[in-house]
Amino acid sequence: MERSFTIKEFGEKYYNKVVIKDRKNPEGIHRYLLRDIYPAFGEKQLDKVTTVDILQLIEIKKLKESDSVALELRNLMKQFMILSIIFGFMGAIGGVLSRSSTGIIFIILLITTAFAAFLCWKDIKNDL
């Protein structure tokens, strides 16, 4: 039976195995996870998160704070979803396309950073 992860479970593994290793100051990423991503859909299964969910979260962030903060959140979510696709927790295209025509745009954004995400897959694969 295939393991199903929530956003929060996968986020903690991502933070501990990738972010802490790659960033000199990982606290900003952890703050986004705790303050924005987990409250919005931390208990949702990875394959149930849609493009619309992510775009709404980013739009709210943009309205409440700034474009640059929303961009950081978008980049974090992009990296996060790429890894979930690489690990097979979402189908080849996953939930992000199944419920929204704007998913194509999101998938193009995902592909642009897929190589970087693939490079860190071995760091967390053993723990999943």
Give the topology, please:
Blueprint: H1 7-22, H2 27-41, H3 51-64, H4 67-86, H5 95-98, H6 103-112, H7 114-119, H8 121-125
Give a structural overview:
This protein is an all-alpha fold. It has a single domain (7-123), classed as Orthogonal Bundle (DNA polymerase, domain 1), CATH 1.10.150. It contains 8 helices and no strands. It has helices spanning 7-22, 27-41, 51-64, 67-86, 95-98, 103-112, 114-119, 121-125. Helix 1 runs antiparallel to helix 2, helix 3 packs antiparallel against helix 4 and helix 4 packs across helix 6. Residues 91-102 have low confidence and may be disordered.
Number of helices: 8
N/C terminus separation: 14 Å
Name of the CATH class: Mainly Alpha
SSE order: HHHHHHHH
The whole-number mean of residue pLDDT values reads 74
Quick one: how many beta strands?
A: 0
Q: So what's the overall shape? A: globular
Provide the gyration radius in Å. Answer: 14 Å
Number of domains: 1
Structural class: mainly alpha
- Percent of residues in helices comes to over 70%
* CATH topology description: DNA polymerase, domain 1
Tell me what the CATH architecture is. Answer: Orthogonal Bundle
Beta-strand percentage range: under 5%
Largest sheet: none
- pLDDT under 50 segments (min length 5)? 91-102
Concise account of the structure shown:
By secondary structure, the protein is mostly helical.
